[in-house]
Design a protein that fits this description.
Helix content is about 35%, strand content about 30%. By secondary structure, the protein is an alpha+beta fold.
Amino acid sequence: MAAGLINFQSVEINQVLQIYAELVNRTILRPANLGTPQITLKTQTALTKSEAIQALDAVLAMNGIGVINVGDKFAKVV
């Protein structure tokens, strides 16, 4: 996924996690009871890949969701 702007307007968490997985090149391990929050994030400037990951980590945390790397290939959503 190329760097650029992010414009999420009430995007479902599954879509956000799919984009996150592509950015970090890991398989997302998602609990069944995660819920279905809607994520809103609009950046004002283009982001690098690292900045996009940082922005997604922050907006997920603001919604009570954390992502923990597990080994080299997985990321666990908590």
